[in-house]
Specification:
Layout (H helix, E strand, L loop, with lengths): L6 E4 L9 H10 L5 E6 L11 H10 L4 E6 L7 H7 L3 E5 L6 H10 L3 E6 L17 E5 L14 H14 L5 E5 L7 H7 L3 E4 L1 H4 L4 H13 L3
Helix pairs in contact: 2-3
The structure holds D-xylitol-5-phosphate and zinc ion.
Length: about 220
């Protein structure tokens, strides 16, 4: 996989919301490929974050694709408002989507790219029957809910399994990883077959967040 296909998707969860416009402009100037927007409902995960209004605001502030990660129960309630608000990718959790095939189809009907994601305890096989229909497969490398958590080491083997599933089913889906991505963890994920990397704490806690985007990308280019 060429290094040019690496996507870095900074997570706005770690942004300064008093300076959201400045932070988004900084990420864009720093070479971010996508913006990752974590929507949490306080039910599926023990935290609350953003709704439609914030997605609309982000849409006005950038042309970067908005990669919306729905950590909510009954995600289908939000597909239409989030699509209208300007989401480009809508990713739902397998654990909250008993009718995943239908939900993936509905996201595509609304003109968005459809993603499905797996909590750390959910096996890759849960996506076997829909892999060919997905635009994005997200492997969670922390238990979702908070930024700044430690990367779960077993996620590397899981990414390799997800890559094998996508290849076996002829799926062209993006393979994304989310949680604890840093200079120390990104290379192993890239080697295992991930191409898209969410990073919150690693970018926003860095002295120079824009330079950190380049540094993360370089950790993949080094091994390409
Ligand atoms: C966690 C979120 C992540 C989070 C990643 O539930 O889905 O997107 O922002 O943050 P870091 O990179 O700090 O682990
Ligand atoms: Zn996320």
């Amino acid at each position: 996989m060429p290094a040019s296909s690496v996507r870095i998707a900074p997570s706005l969860l770690s942004a300064d919301f008093a300076r959201l416009a400045d932070d988004i402009a900084m990420l864009e100037a720093g070479g971010a490929d996508w913006l990752h927007v974590d929507v949490m409902d306080g039910v599926f995960v023990p935290n609350l974050t953003f709704g439609v209004k914030v997605i609309e605001t982000c849409r006005r502030l950038t042309r970067l694709p908005l990669d919306v990660h729905l950590m909510v129960v009954e995600p289908e309630k939000y597909f239409e408002p989030f699509a209208k608000a300007g989401a480009d990718v809508l990713t739902i959790h397998v654990e909250a989507a008993p009718h995943l095939h239908r939900q993936v189809g509905r996201i595509k009907e609304l003109g968005c790219r459809a993603g499905a994601t797996l909590n750390p305890s959910t096996p890759v096989g849960a996506l076997e029957e829909v892999a060919a229909d997905l635009d994005l497969l997200l492997v969670m490398s922390v238990n979702p809910g908070f930024g700044g958590q430690a990367f779960i080491g077993r996620s590397v083997a899981k990414i390799a399994k997800a890559r094998a599933l996508l290849d076996a089913t002829g799926s062209r889906a993006v393979l994304e990883v989310d949680g604890g991505i840093s200079r120390d963890t990104i290379t192993a994920c890239w080697r295992a077959g991930a191409d898209t990397f969410v990073a919150g704490n690693a970018i926003f806690a860095a002295a120079d967040p824009a330079a950190e985007i380049a540094a993360l990308r370089a950790r993949c280019a080094d091994v390409a």
